Amino acid sequence: MNAELDLLIVGGGINGAGIARDAAGRGLRVALCEQHDLAAHTSSASTKLIHGGLRYLEYYDFKLVRKSLAEREIILTAAPHIVRPLRFVLPHDRHLRPAWMIRAGLFLYDHLAKRRILPGSQAVNLRQHPAGAPLDQRYRRGFLYSDAWVDDARLVILTALDAHEHGAEILPRTRCTAIRREGDRWSATLEAAGGSRRIVHARAVVNASGPWVAEFLDHASPVKAGHHPRLIKGSHIVVPRVYAGEFAYLFQAPDGRVVFGIPFEGDFTVIGTTERDYTGDLAAPSIDESEIDYLLAMANRYFAAELGREDVVWSFAGLRPLLAKSTDDPKSVTRDYLLELDEHGPPLLSVYGGKITTYRRLAEDVLGLLAPRLGNRSPPWTRTAPLPGGDIPRADFAAFLRQMEREYPWLPSELRLRYARAYGTRIRRLLAGRRGREDLGEEVLPGLHAAEIDYLRREEWARTAEDLLWRRTKLGLRVPGGAAAKLDAWLAAHPLAAIKGAP
Fold first, then answer.
1. 213 near 194, Cβ under 8 Å?
2. pTM score
3. Could you tell me if 477 and 447 are in contact, meaning their C-beta atoms sit under 8 angstroms apart?
4. Number of alpha carbons in the 13 Å side-chain half-sphere of residue 430
5. Of the residues 199, 240, 271, 468, which has the maximum number of CB atoms within 10 A of its CB?
6. What digits encode the pLDDT tens for the residues 427-462?
7. Strands 169-171 and 30-33
């Protein structure tokens, strides 16, 4: 590792990865350290939407909505394998605003930013439109509008991968335990998971540690946090697929909160999210029993199918650090970000807040502040640059999948679709030199072959069963009980050093 850096980034979620990518692409010497796996926390526990934030219109946060809608178009084009359009259904319930007012809000949502890819909104008769089929019959009127879905963990991984390929050092499982100013640079102590330590020097540091942003400042730096974010836990449940079709649903509760029902991994539906204050272990938020009850009640209020606790096959929870007073209603607090720059010596920039949709723009704003201070005059570049695997002609995933059928007819269709979705054009790297399914090596778990495991360890920093089953893939939803222990045993028996080209 280069011990002399221009920029050290602390935090391997979506914001840290985005900043590393932008900075490395401008020619800066960059390292990113993350105390756990990449995307191990908030950035893999989102509702997995690339969206403008329709409900933010209620709070007149037009700036954030406009910025988010513009970024939605950019991300759809940059990563058409892991991002895809979704058509949302908003049933009109008796406690909601008048239908004409909702229609006006959707018109504004359609036109706040330039829209080239997604269709606009429309009113529908839910008794006649296919979108109404899964809903309780009492819902007669509704609206359709467009947003997009993303595999959030893979968005982080691919962004970090692009940073690495532009020259950044990516250091998962490496904690920054202390930074101190030494003249015109920072001295940072990095501690790897095995206990080894090293010192690196950087001309600037970015604190993009998400829920840990204030803790890092207060305990690892000479700068005291200017803000102590209020941590809001958002929880989700996953159930077997509730309905046929590819529509997503937005349900607004009588208390004003919003819950989504979204198609997930083909055979499932994800339902979320909640908004609860959180004071526990930052690394281990989990869903509460009352949250499960709340999400099931919301789903049962709108869907015709009746869901119970026995239907919940998985749950996940993440923390959102919001700049909010304890008296603020969490749903009304902006999801926009704040960048705080301390220049009492070499720069230290801390990132507060943000949402996955605006990560690229956030990174561009960070470099807008830091690049001139580092003597770098390279222009912004990420707006038109695809993410790894996203260089699909015309961003047409359907056409790309047909091409993959011609190139790999020996791959089972389900496996081919999963590979195409996860890796995009980099499926050719994964399958280089392979002529049949037997060339994929041992099927360690159903649908998970040795060739893919080795690729993910070599190319994408995967080390454990959890990395492989829940962040690099979502095969954890499909494998039998005890699969994680079996996979960890297999990984131990096949050490990473034996893999050609492994970092």
1. no
2. 0.96
3. no
4. 30
5. 271
6. 999 999 999 999 999 999 999 999 999 999 999 999
7. parallel
Q: What is residue 467's DSSP assignment?
A: I
Domains 4-42+153-229+334-384 and 83-150+230-325 agree in fold: no
In angstroms, how far is CA 98 from the centroid of its own chain?
Answer: 34
| Beta pairing partners, 402 | none
- Say how far apart CA 323 and CA 15 lie, in whole Å: 17
Nearest alpha-carbon partner for 321 in 279, 284, 291:
279
d(CA 300, CA 312): 13
For 83-150+230-325, CATH gives 3.30.9.10
The CA-based dihedral angle spanning residues 385, 386, 392, 397, taken in that order and rounded to the nearest 10 degrees:
-130
What top-level class would CATH report for the domain 393-498? Answer: mainly alpha
| Bond into 273 cis (ω within 30) | yes
State the Cα–Cα distance between residues 245 and 260, nearest whole angstrom: 15
Q: Is pLDDT of 500 > 50?
A: no
Residue 141 near residue 92 (C-beta atoms within 8 A): yes
Sorted by where each begins, the domain ranges of the chain are 4-42+153-229+334-384, 83-150+230-325, 393-498
Question: What is the structure's pLDDT at 148?
Answer: 97
Locus of tokens 């690394």? 283
- Distance in Å from the first CA to the final CA of the chain: 11
What letter does residue 146 receive in the DSSP assignment?
E
Q: Which CATH class is domain 4-42+153-229+334-384?
A: alpha beta
- pLDDT (tens digit per residue) in 72-95: 999 999 999 999 999 999 999 877
